[in-house]
Fold Palmitoyltransferase.
Amino acid sequence: MKSSPANRSRDIERQAGYLQPEHCAPPPPRAHSAHDMWFIRDGCGIVCAVITWLLVLYAEFVVVFVMLLPARSLLYSFINGALFNSLAFLALASHLRAMCTDPGAVPKGNATKEFIESLQLKPGQVVYKCPKCCSIKPDRAHHCSVCKRCIKKMDHHCPWVNNCVGENNQKYFVLFTMYIALISLHALLMVAFHFVFCFEEDWAKCSSFSPPATVILLILLCFEALLFLIFTAVMFGTQVHSICNDETGIEQLKKEERRWAKRSKWMNMKVVFGHPFSMSWMSPFATPDHGKANLYQYVV
Ligand SMILES: [Zn+2]
Ligand SMILES: [Zn+2]
């Protein structure tokens, strides 16, 4: 058989008769249900996720206590405070949803003889088996060594959200990058205003902290916001581009051949964010309905 790049990238490729299901342990008695809490126990990922929260809370502290509360205009403080806090709340909610949503894990150990027989393969049909988690891989699924599972439409494993970005949580991940980019931009604008305002006024009236402490806190916030603005804006752009083209990060890296149907860019966005377009696209609390446009098959 001629080996194309797409075939080489697969872990194992056999005809149904050679799958050797006896090497796989039977699946756990209780299947993983969608309502179970999903959380990856990975030390590095947990540390990164906690750092993300601490950085957002630091920004929150500086914005509220160093810049907005001492500001003289109540209206300025109120509008900016409401906007910044709403965006920060949505960013943290998106982070939680991205972290605690099953990204699309394939049931572990389902490569059993009974399951393969139940697929009723025709002669010559091929199924893919993951040798690491003993599951039958649907098309476009990849094994993640951190999650120790095969993930449907896996894009990449992100330690900042301590989870894989895949079919079921990509919306939350995209929202997370978007809201972090927005609060970073907003914080930078407020720091710029604060500096302009405080150079004209007396420093002592401008902040309840001492001038050196104020400057250090603001410069640290500036540095943080600039770094995260660049990082998350690039990530957001890359994600939207790959959603529109319906090609995951892994598929782009491996230059996999397109084996799936081509849809319009707008349709591809709806597959990830839900159908039809509404304000719920922006909400980390609205679970998108992936069902209709996504017909995954076990057999290719
Ligand atoms: Zn696997
Ligand atoms: Zn993963």
User: Anything to note?
Assistant: The beta strands are 13-15, 126-130, 135-137, 141-144, 149-152, 156-158, 163-165.
